[in-house]
Design goal:
heterodimer, A: alpha+beta, Cytochrome Bc1 Complex, Chain A, domain 1, six-stranded mixed beta sheet, five-stranded mixed beta sheet, 11 strands, B: alpha+beta, 15 helices
């Protein structure tokens, strides 16, 4: 069912990719640049986020407001922002407006004004967002857990720090822009009702003459296992767990995806069933796979009231550990069915496909078709998955809790 | 796309509608029950939502584990939600599994409601309430909504309170179920790639014992609260403000104008609030949308600001509203908002799952069918004059704001 993916790399390193979805009236794209929190300069934590906002505040021959009006004028629904390793500029729109819209985005990333007068607005906004994190305990937990888990700059939060945001100036950010923004590693992914000829021609016109070296991404390293607590007056204790899993694209990646589906695939999966359905300990419990370039890990979460926190963490870790004993045929088939249907349904949405393509290229170097992923998931037998689990699944947990008091006992004996 | 609308009513009163799309790669189905928090009396506050959880807890033919397992075996993208005025159970699957999905969803609509499951699930609901207690941007709406609606049932809390949930008994839930989940108060909606004749045959068989009953909903006049109120919570870092103003109902022809108007004022990009507050770094969130409900509607806004400039932020927010109320909008910003809305509608309409929700909800309100293209045309045909009509009622002069602040 899925259409052949087209891709081209210009001599400056800029990559363009299209998944044609000719039956759709819409088109979505994601412009991915490898500029994120991991490469924020020392003492300037949060600069990718502030830069990302500042870029929209005037570009090419358009002022901030004129640029926004142009995008809204063709009905563009905007998305994106700065994350750990990269920032994206994503948009969904009616297919006939793709060319003028990409012209605007090319101006945003290549010819931003970076006006001094617009800097303070962008910085203050980032400071406000950082403040707001404190009123959102779950999100705060995950930002902190990331910092506790990674020894490398991958622990940096894209929200930045008070000191980092306070220290940056228009001049430091401008020089950061000059140094960090480049066609190297940049990807424009497009999915929807447009032709390859037109997409390639637009990309060539807008990006093929872009020059610049960019910056290298840091190596990943993590801390040894451990448990910590953040004290904050909340109703629920927030429980977060991180542990290493398979590197994206490496042997065992799909096995791990299926195994995680057994844990977290649906309401019949182990976590929901053991923690919520049988014991009523939580409303929310989950485990998700996370990938950064060259490294994969799993994040697990549960939120519960203080008096049930010890039992919840114990049951949660117990289920995460028990996976090494293997899964049943039935469990595997349910997990597989879930992943396969999710793939087909994502394949119906131009936005979901555009972001998946850009992410694949960033993580794996190549895009994958829906059919290719389906084939890989279908090919694995119960033995494949269980032999992966018994040999390679040895989770070492980093645990962080956030709440009004620490847990009664240490869960990591 | 060759879309076809289909509808029928079974003898027991159950309505079935569908928008068939033979090219779709999936099929979506959902039971839309015309009941929610607004249909509750205060002694059972939160029962609609608690019942929604209990509907997954087994039937005469299935244990709770069976239900969860079968959904997973179908590879279904599925869930349920409860709002002030409806409770919806839905799923999307590959076309060849549509029949099984429908068997499961239909069977679930006649639940066992066992005492032991009720007792365990009560804890889950109490955890859900505790979870929202930690979300001030949710809590401020929960309290603000009740105060704005000022005795109107749309002010009822969906979750209920810890006390109301603790006190709720299984028999009260059973009685509520029997009254509200009558087939004539339910709508089965289908979207995507399904077979209409197979569905009719199957659902007619599965629901032949369902008994219709008399169900009613009250539509009192809204005498909304206005003015400025605040609550203190020392644990907060920010000031969270919810804003409410009277709007138009889901049956009102002016509902498109109200939605476009709200987008001009408070969309996440390029709106008046964006330029006045977010662009300047005064607030990290400042929005306004329009919520048209059954028989009544409201404008709903939110702003988050630092405690030290909260008064300034709120003053600017109100100035923006009153400026529009007094002088209206200009035609260019109107056209931009229309286009953004059209894109969003197109995107949501492209998948059966996305289509299901608007199809069912709008049919519940208006008992008629509109294709995505009909809605987009209606949006583009809505003129600024209609916004003037919405503003003639001076909604923003009746503004109610509730702030939760650290001191």
């Amino acid at each position: 069912m899925s259409q052949p993916i087209q891709t081209h790399t210009f001599s400056n390193g800029f990559r363009v990719v299209l998944e044609p979805m000719p039956w759709l009236a819409s088109v979505s794209f994601a412009l991915l640049l490898p500029v994120g929190a991991t490469t924020d300069p020392k003492g300037q934590s949060g600069s990718a986020t502030v830069l990302n906002d500042w870029l929209y505040r005037g570009a090419g021959d358009l002022s901030s407001q004129a640029l926004s009006n142009e995008l809204d004028g063709v009905g563009v629904r905007r998305g994106g922002g700065a994350g750990k390793e990269y920032m994206t500029f994503s948009a969904s729109l009616l297919a006939e407006s793709l060319a003028p819209t990409l012209e605007l985005y090319a101006a945003i990333v290549r010819r931003p004004h970076l006006d001094e007068g617009e800097f303070e607005g962008a910085r203050t906004l980032a400071q406000q967002e950082l403040e707001s994190l404190q009123d959102s305990p779950t999100q705060q937990l995950f930002e902190a857990l990331s910092g506790q888990y990674f020894a490398s700059p991958h622990g940096n939060s894209s929200y930045g720090t008070h000191d980092g945001l306070g220290a940056m100036t228009p001049a430091t950010l401008r020089s950061g822009y000059e140094r960090r923004f480049s066609p190297r590693g940049a990807v424009l992914s497009v999915a929807g009702g447009v032709s390859w000829e037109s997409v390639k021609a637009i990309a060539e016109k807008l990006f093929a003459d872009w020059q610049g070296a960019g910056t290298d991404l840091p190596k990943v390293s993590v801390h040894a296992e451990g448990q910590a607590h953040l004290e904050q007056a909340t109703q629920q204790v927030q429980i977060g767990v991180a542990y290493e899993a398979v590197m994206p694209g490496a042997q065992g990646w799909y096995e791990n995806a299926l195994a995680l589906g057994v844990l977290n695939g649906g309401m019949g999966a182990r976590l929901f069933s053991e923690v919520r359905e049988k014991r009523g300990l939580v409303y929310s419990v989950a485990a998700v796979s996370r990938a950064i370039r060259g490294f994969g890990y799993t994040l697990a979460y549960a939120g519960t009231t203080t008096e049930r926190a010890d039992e919840t963490l114990e049951v949660l870790l117990g289920e995460l550990r028990r996976l090494s004993e293997g899964v049943s045929e039935e469990e595997l088939e349910r997990a597989r069915t879930g992943l396969l249907s999710k793939l087909v349904m994502q394949g119906e949405s131009s936005g979901a496909r555009a972001s998946a393509l850009a992410r694949d290229i960033f993580l794996l170097g190549e895009p994958r078709t829906v059919d290719e992923i389906k084939a890989a998931l279908t090919a694995l037998s119960l033995d494949d998955v269980n032999s992966y689990l018994s040999k390679h699944y040895t989770p070492k947990f980093t645990v962080l809790t956030l709440g009004s008091k620490p847990l009664a006992k240490a869960a990591l004996a | 796309m060759s879309l076809k609308f289909q509808e029928t009513t079974l003898d027991n009163g159950l309505k079935i509608i569908g928008e068939h799309n033979p090219q779709a790669q999936s099929a979506a189905a959902g039971y839309f029950v015309n009941t929610g928090a607004r249909d509750e009396t205060s002694d059972v506050a939160g029962v609609s939502h608690f019942l929604e959880h209990m509907m997954f807890k087994g039937t005469a033919r299935r244990t709770p584990e069976d239900i969860n397992r079968e959904f997973d075996e179908l590879g279904a993208n599925y869930n349920a939600y409860t709002s002030e005025e409806r409770t919806v159970y839905y799923g999307a699957v590959l076309p060849e599994r549509g029949e099984k999905l429908l068997d499961l969803l239909t069977d679930m609509m006649r639940p066992s409601l066992r005492q032991s499951d009720f007792d365990i699930e009560k804890n889950v609901i109490l955890e859900e309430i505790a979870m929202y207690e930690d979300k001030p941007n949710f809590r401020v709406f929960e309290i603000g909504n009740e105060r704005f609606y000022n005795g109107h049932p749309l002010g009822n809390s969906i979750l209920g309170s810890t006390d109301s949930i603790k006190a709720l008994e299984r028999e009260q839930m059973q009685a509520y179920f029997e009254k509200r989940y009558a087939p004539n108060n339910m709508l089965l909606t289908l979207a995507g790639n399904y077979d209409w004749d197979v569905v009719l045959n199957q659902v007619t068989g599965l629901t032949q014992d369902w008994q219709p009953s008399e169900t009613t909903r009250t539509y009192p006049d809204l005498k909304s609260q206005d003015g400025v109120q605040s609550l203190n919570d020392k644990t907060l870092a920010r000031v969270h403000t919810a804003l409410f103003a009277p709007g138009v109902s889901a049956q009102d022809d002016l509902r498109y104008a109200a939605a476009i108007l709200a987008s001009c004022i408070g969309d996440s990009s390029g709106s008046r609030l964006y330029w006045s507050l977010i662009d300047k770094g005064l607030a990290d969130s400042a929005s306004l949308s329009h919520d048209s409900a059954d028989g009544v509607g409201s404008f709903v806004g939110y702003v988050s600001s630092a405690p030290e400039n909260f008064e300034k932020v709120l003053a600017i927010y109100k100035e923006v509203l009153l400026e529009v109320e007094e002088n209206g909008l200009d035609s260019e910003e109107w056209a931009r908002a229309q286009r953004k809305l059209a894109t969003s509608l197109t995107l949501r309409g492209e998948t059966p799952f996305g289509r299901l929700m608007s199809l069912g909800a709008s049919y519940l309100y208006n008992k008629d069918y509109q294709s995505v293209q009909d809605v987009i045309n209606a949006v583009f045909n809505t003129s600024l004059d209609e916004a003037t009509k919405v503003l003639a009622n001076k909604p923003f002069s009746k503004l109610y704001t509730l702030s939760m602040r650290p001191e």
